[in-house]
Design goal:
Blueprint: E1 2-7, E2 10-15, H1 28-47, H2 66-80, E3 85-91, E4 103-109, E5 115-120, E6 134-138, E7 144-148, E8 158-163, E9 169-173, E10 178-182, E11 188-193, H3 198-207, E12 227-232, E13 238-242, E14 248-252, E15 258-262, E16 264-265, E17 271-272, E18 275-280, E19 286-290, E20 295-299, E21 305-309, E22 317-320, E23 328-331, E24 336-340, E25 346-351, E26 365-368, E27 373-377, E28 384-392
């Protein structure tokens, strides 16, 4: 028989074989329900410390560490000394026939002005929980066009969507450990990473009772560990933020050949605590959101460390506005958006996302349409916002533009 036990931070799903001669029938639905319950508990435990980087209590009721407290105080002082941006927020009216948009965690636009929204919606099948990963396209007038990649194997738990300079659409799915490239017609052209097979999960953790003992492993070639985002340099090399389980950045050639990776779990240079987003500038500098360490680490195109930026609180998303007026934007889960020059100097900030009944995860992905227009997706309000910067802030020095 199955027995569910939870003690402190330990969760156990036990199976006791029947006595000889006793007939036991276990419905598949019961097994699936137990597996889903296990997933919910494990996920809650894993995410319990995620708010610590935002100044929230860490897992187990502990408050921020002394280092985090110092970083929070430094950020507050910096914001007090920096003029706010004057912004307007427009909640976009996005309707899909016969469907309700869920958590709109990913947002991007292509060269035609079409909007792509990657949502945590859908309720089919167990992938450590119900599938929550659907990618929708809207035209320049916000009219629904189509769903991309319906029923695709990598759709498990949505994280971000990006569009490259060729209008290829890339979905990064945290749940399946995959990054998928669609061409402009919606055909799959590249599948990176490998989804854990459901049957393997059941055999290992239910039937054999194994445990995943290493919470933050050293990543291996060919697989990701809850990846979060993707970007490209001018030579079309691919850079993947990897991620929640792994703590690294991966560089791949444009054909998907794995070239290099940098990063382990920690707080030093080339170490990460939740690699949550990634972007690139016109000079091929790579900006990596190291959320738990409250910084953005900067690399060259060969993944050599250049510097750290610590003027954007706990970065949940990063994007650079198009050249020639190129700036670095970042947003944190408390709904603050930061505008910086490419050296990381804070030029202005704004509070957004209020008035929806939510207080956290108010920014999940930013798309920089220009240096004055951003699009924001989040994982709490079920909305996509267009944010227009009307003024405020301070000018960047000419040497950093």
């Amino acid at each position: 028989m199955f027995d569910v036990r939870c003690s402190g931070s330990e969760f156990r799903l036990l199976y006791t074989p029947p006595e000889r001669g006793e007939e036991v029938v276990v419905k598949r639905s019961i097994i699936v329900s137990l597996v889903l319950l296990a997933a919910v508990v494990v996920q809650a435990q894993r995410e319990g410390g995620a708010g610590a980087g935002q100044g929230q209590p860490a897992a187990g009721g502990r408050g921020p560490s002394p280092e985090q407290q110092a970083a929070i105080a430094k950020q507050e002082a910096l914001e007090k000394a920096t003029p706010q941006l004057q912004v307007t927020e427009d909640v976009l009216s996005l309707a899909i026939p016969g469907h309700t948009i869920g958590e709109a965690v990913g947002v991007a636009k292509n060269s035609k002005g079409h909007l792509f929204v990657f949502t945590r919606s859908g309720n089919v099948g167990p992938a450590r929980g119900s599938t929550a990963s659907q990618l929708f396209e809207f035209d320049q007038n916000l009219k629904f066009v189509k769903q991309w990649g319906p029923d695709n194997y990598a759709a498990s738990f949505a994280h971000t969507v990006r569009v490259d300079k060729y209008d290829n659409v890339w979905m990064t799915d945290e749940g399946s450990n995959m990054v998928v490239k669609f061409d402009p017609q919606g055909m799959v052209k590249l599948a990176l990473g490998r989804k854990p097979e459901a049957i393997d999960f059941l055999e290992r953790f239910v039937e054999r009772g194994e445990k995943d003992e290493v919470r933050f492993p050293v990543g291996t070639t060919g697989t990701f560990g809850r990846p979060t985002d993707v970007t490209w340099d001018s030579s079309d090399n691919i850079f993947v933020a990897d991620g929640y389980s792994n703590s690294r950045v991966v560089k791949l050639a444009k054909d998907g050949t794995w070239l290099k990776s940098v990063g382990t779990r920690g707080a030093g240079n080339n170490q990460f605590n939740t690699v949550h987003a990634i972007t690139v500038d016109a000079k091929n500098n790579i900006y990596v959101a190291d959320r738990g360490n409250r910084r953005i680490q900067v690399y060259d195109a060969d993944l050599n460390f250049l510097k750290s930026i610590t003027s954007a609180a706990a970065p949940w998303s990063v994007c650079t506005s198009p050249a020639p007026n190129q700036y670095l934007f970042s947003g944190d889960g408390n709904g603050k958006i930061y505008k910086m020059d490419l050296d990381g100097n804070l030029l202005g900030w704004a509070q957004v996302g209020k008035g929806h009944g939510q207080t956290t995860c108010l920014v999940h992905e930013l798309h920089c349409e220009s240096d004055t227009v951003l699009y924001k997706g989040d994982c709490s309000t079920w909305t996509v916002e267009k944010i227009t910067i009307k003024g405020g802030g301070k000018a960047a020095s000419t040497s950093t533009k």
